[in-house]
Design goal:
globular, alpha/beta, 4-stranded mixed sheet, TIM Barrel, Rossmann fold, 26 strands, about 15% strand
Amino acid sequence: MNYADIISSLNLEQKCALLSGETVFTTRALPGKGIPAITLSDGPNGVRKQAGAADHLGLNPSVPATCFPTSATVANSWDPALGQAVGRAMGEEAAAQGVSVLLGPGLNIKRSPLCGRNFEYFSEDPYLAGKMAAAYVRGIQENGISACPKHFAANSQELRRMASDSILDERTLREIYLTGFEMVVKEAKPKTIMSAYNLVNGTYANENAHLLQDILRKDWGFEGAVVTDWGGSNDHALGVKNGSTLEMPCPGDDSIRELVKAVETGKITEADVDARLEELLELVFTTKAAVDAAPSKFDAAAHHALARQAAAQSIVLLKNQDSLLPLTKGETVAVIGDFAKTPRYQGAGSSAVNSIQVDSFLDCLAESGLNSVGYAQGFDRQGKADQALQDEAVLLAKNAKVVLLCMGLDEIKESEGIDRADMQLAQNQLDLLAAVAAVNPNVVVLLSAGSSLESQWIKDCKALVYGCLGGQAGAGALVEVLTGAQNPSGKLAETWACRYADTPARENFGGQGRTVEYRESLYVGYRYYDTAGVPTAFPFGYGLSYTSFAYSDLQADAQGVTLTVTNTGSCAGAEVVQLYVAKPDAKIFRPAKELKGFAKVELAAGESKTITIPLDDKAFRYWNVKTDRWEVEGGSYQLLVGASSADIRLTAVVTVEGTNAPDPYAGLAMPHYMTGEVAQVPDAEYEALLGRPLPEGKVRIDRNMTLGEMGHGRSPLGWIAAAVLGALLNRSIKKGKPDLNILFQYNMPLRALAKMTNGAISMGMVDGIVMELKGFWIIGILRVIWEALKNVVLNNRMEERLKNS
């Protein structure tokens, strides 16, 4: 549709007004011009349309919806078709609730297991993340509404997420942190993309021309709208100039005036505004039509069944000593653990869904055919030691053949806004496990956690079933796996390190400075462990089954592989066959192997199937920083087919023609990157990789100083405010219930005060606060007061004009 006539009918102020939200989750309407508003809603694993007062952290209630397993869970299915079905159901529910844009899926790379939001993301591997996310997007958009993959880009930690600067070389950016987004854009054509909070190499992602123009629009051909993360706009005018379409949530009229002034002063052109407006109107009119045409109801029972299916197919069996599982009908079991009664099934923050129904493990077990001798809570959920609870559980464990012990991380351990402090389960749970195992060795641990854990405790259980965060129907899925009604087929979408000290980014993750250095470069997850020879607890792609599979008859060329997979066991099952590419004699440094294809195949007992796994244009390429394009190093490559990154069953060698590009690292000393031993890369080597000196990460007194950093200023008021915020935050953390709202405020830059308050605070007022913090005490306060009065007057005048337009 051509929107030139609509755009030409608008004056500059009206145009600029449309490029920011009117409320927390709606765009601005201009009824006099025939332009409606649309609703956006959180939704990586279910729709979170808030029913009352809206907020961006998931603090207030929302309309009931199906809570599907989180992305971290469904990624373990390695099944894009399943992901598309989940996306389709979420799209149906969104449209039924009047939602035009569903804010998800999230596909940031799991750089560190401590990222508090890892439960929302698919994988440490960009190929797997890209395939799964593309499937979700296709499903969500089937009825005409929009998905909004996020957060673009290099957003891999929660600490200071609105003001941290991700420092990484171009090759790492392209190969690891952008490849998944590239796949989504090219394979699923999302109508929107959400830009990240953080800076990327010194420029905020939302105004980063390299990201939004050079890569997203020019290289990948994206034609949709870019939406800021909520409060993620730094300089709205530069955002519009460089490719950002819609500023959210509701920055108010000061933001409109900022944009108008930028055009009038020549900072940007009206053509820049028109280009973004064209993108926005396309989004508004097409998705509004889709919502209007969609049914107002959905089949909640069918969606619950789908949620259970998704959870069941994503469960990973990590240990099954003596083939303890599956359990036979009538087996006596003792159920222990607080999570059996009150399931931990989703993460905290903006993705939290008000579930239509939530199944508990105890209720589902009652229909399983197993003979339960009773239930004991076993431990305090928040980690407090309680000997009476442990003693009760140990006594119960003596009365059953098998103990079903439900362990996991509590709700606040994995949340938007805060990174995990460690990779450990609570000590009271580990003490309980050891005590129970001492009286009954037949312990099955059912683990609820959205990210990897240190697991030295696995010696105390005979079986370990990883349910991840299984959504509202996850409990029933666990029962299906325990009884053999479902043969587990999940495979880990992230490596489980033996301990946090073994992880590659540990020295450069979650620091207090303004910069986050990606010194490990390409060596994320299994790319690091396999290359540097670091042992792991469970490798990438690992998962057991109740049956066994044999691989044979491999045929390969540069376009892909064909092989036969046979179920050699006694029951039906599904196998995820993984294809890795390696070049042992590479001159350009690279990981030992990289995932470039996979296929999930279902087989009856004794059945064989021939499958083909194709290789695409990403199979052999690398980003050359000297030629500034994708290149291929010619020569022989190994195609490795296996059941995990550490379990390679078949190997073939193919010859690939190269592009004869110059070595981008010629003459540079890069011993750590050549070997993959990147846990501690010296400054000089990292600067050589970057091709520039390291930036300073000092705290500065400016609009992007966070509220928690105000103690570094020169104002007693700032010192007091920072101290109070810090005290409130620490008190809530000590209670085991960190306050998400305080967390957000503590890490929020001052500029966000003008972006998150619906116009109540202007950027001029923020500048007054900055003056105060710089030590201009009286002048700063007076400016805040003057700017506040001016803001009220100007807002009233503008709203009157827009109302009458």
